[in-house]
Automatic annotation (TrEMBL):
<dbReference type="Pfam" id="PF05685">
    <property type="entry name" value="Uma2"/>
</dbReference>
<dbReference type="InterPro" id="IPR012296">
    <property type="entry name" value="Nuclease_put_TT1808"/>
</dbReference>
<protein>
    <recommendedName>
        <fullName>Putative restriction endonuclease domain-containing protein</fullName>
    </recommendedName>
</protein>
<dbReference type="InterPro" id="IPR011335">
    <property type="entry name" value="Restrct_endonuc-II-like"/>
</dbReference>
<feature type="domain" description="Putative restriction endonuclease">
    <location>
        <begin position="19"/>
        <end position="160"/>
    </location>
</feature>
<dbReference type="InterPro" id="IPR008538">
    <property type="entry name" value="Uma2"/>
</dbReference>
């Protein structure tokens, strides 16, 4: 069926007439049927959604979430990034960042209408991931030319995402997992796997030095109370541990260790 031009008259339906789970969006009061996604399409939703949701600066991201900027408009981007909220129904307004996947059977006119509505209402960027033909992402911004990026390029969304997103991460499982791992490590305070390994090596050395101090003191019949033992074990200053280790070999009283 050929695409229909964007409706200019207001249709008869309102957002409050739709319930969660209904397979319809609304455009200016006109219903738009949203068909279920196939294997590739739905799998990409999950991959792209996880890449964006795990970004350290993202408070909330969702798949097929309904946004309503007006009483007759309800739009559900494939993926949306927005501020955190506690709504029990549709989300007011539009997301700052939206992602749409265009696969077989895509109604191009309807996609164009959806993008324009989102951008007109305040969405800063819409990324259109093309699953037919050469893999690429079209970046749409208000009143700017379309930017087309391919494998090897990165997408950025300043003020929304902290990290750049490789184009492949929106549809390739391995690339998506690499980005998710980076994001999750950063959320935990690490820049990379190597940073964790280095911390492990450093912690192991420091813990070994602390154990050596306590063993040496105990071997010389000098005992520390629980608080002082904890002070040594919790220390991460390697130079301080060295000083305590040298002192442990010569002090006559355990209390002198901290003098």
């Amino acid at each position: 069926m050929p695409s229909q031009p964007r409706a200019t008259t207001h249709g008869p339906f309102r957002v409050d007439q739709l319930r969660e789970g209904d397979r319809y969006e609304l455009s200016n009061g006109h219903p738009i049927y949203c068909a279920p996604a196939g294997r590739e399409h739905s799998g990409c939703h999950l991959l792209g959604g996880e890449v964006l949701e795990t970004d350290p600066d993202v408070e909330w991201a969702g798949v097929d979430a309904g946004f309503t900027p007006a009483s007759g408009t309800l739009r559900a981007p494939d993926i949306a990034v927005a501020a955190a909220g506690d709504e029990r129904g549709w989300i007011p307004g539009v997301p700052p960042l939206a992602v749409e996947y265009a696969g077989p059977g895509q109604d191009e006119q309807e996609l164009e209408d959806k993008i324009n509505e989102l951008l007109d209402q305040g969405t800063q960027q819409v990324w259109v991931v093309r699953l037919i033909g050469p893999r690429r992402v079209e970046v749409r911004r208000p009143k700017q030319p379309v930017q087309v990026l391919g494998p090897g390029d990165v997408l950025t969304a300043p003020g929304i995402l902290r990290n750049p997103v490789p184009v492949e991460a929106l549809y390739d499982r391995d690339a998506s997992h690499r980005v998710m791992l980076r994001n999750l490590l950063q959320r935990a305070g690490y820049e990379s796997i190597e940073a964790i390994r280095e911390e492990g090596r450093t912690t192991g050395i420091e813990r070994g030095m602390a154990d050596s101090i306590l063993t040496l003191l105990a071997g010389r019949g000098l005992n520390l109370d629980e608080a002082d033992c904890a002070r040594i074990l919790d220390c991460r200053d390697r130079e301080q541990l060295k000083r305590w280790l040298l002192a442990a070999a010569r002090v006559d009283d355990a209390a002198q260790l901290f003098a």
